[in-house]
TrEMBL record:
The keyword Nucleotidyltransferase does not apply. One of its GO terms (molecular function) is hydrolase activity. The keyword Transcription regulation does not apply. InterPro entries: NUDIX_hydrolase-like_dom_sf (IPR015797), NUDIX_hydrolase_CS (IPR020084), NUDIX_hydrolase_dom (IPR000086). This is NUDIX domain-containing protein. Residues 17-146 form the Nudix hydrolase domain. Keywords: Hydrolase. Its cofactor is Mg(2+).
Length: 153
């Protein structure tokens, strides 16, 4: 049974909407930089997002890669599951983000991004850890690095 890593604090007096989502952790060849999606508002996230309908994790990641970056994506390895309690100031809603994380590689460009306010940036790992908006996404980057180092041994 896998360990559930939980971030944020659950307020027992609030109801949370569960939001299952799938995210990609992408490193450059030297493993010193990670791909981050930055919004026009300056917030940084991992590539990915909420599952729609009955789609699989792979279908979700492929759809999100096209929507956010206009790129193909290749899924390499499952990293793990983590969740985060948070309040969305954009939607004024309390959420429990249920994140499934995968190590991925970006592929070729197939179209212009559909979400014009999302931009791919490459950031040093230390900076990624500080700038990602969601703590469970920072956990996934750290865990993916540890798994990659173990696989290299």
């Amino acid at each position: 049974m896998q360990t559930i890593h939980t971030f944020g604090k659950q307020d027992p007096n609030k109801s949370y909407i569960k939001r299952p989502a799938v995210y990609a952790v992408v490193f450059n060849e030297t493993m010193k930089n990670a791909a981050v999606v930055q919004t026009d508002g300056g917030k940084c996230f991992l590539l990915g997002g909420g599952l729609e309908g009955e789609e699989t994790h792979i279908e979700c990641l492929k759809r999100e890669a096209i929507e956010e970056l206009g790129l193909e994506i290749e899924i390499k390895q499952y990293i793990g599951y983590a969740e985060r309690y948070f309040f969305s100031t954009k939607e004024y809603t309390d959420y429990l983000s249920q994140g499934y994380f995968y190590r991925c590689e970006l592929g070729k460009k197939i179209c212009e991004p559909l979400e014009e306010d999302h931009h791919l940036i490459w950031m040093e790992i230390e900076e990624v850890q500080k700038k990602l908006f969601h703590e469970h996404q920072s956990w996934a980057v750290k865990t993916a690095l540890e798994l990659s180092r173990q696989n290299d041994k």
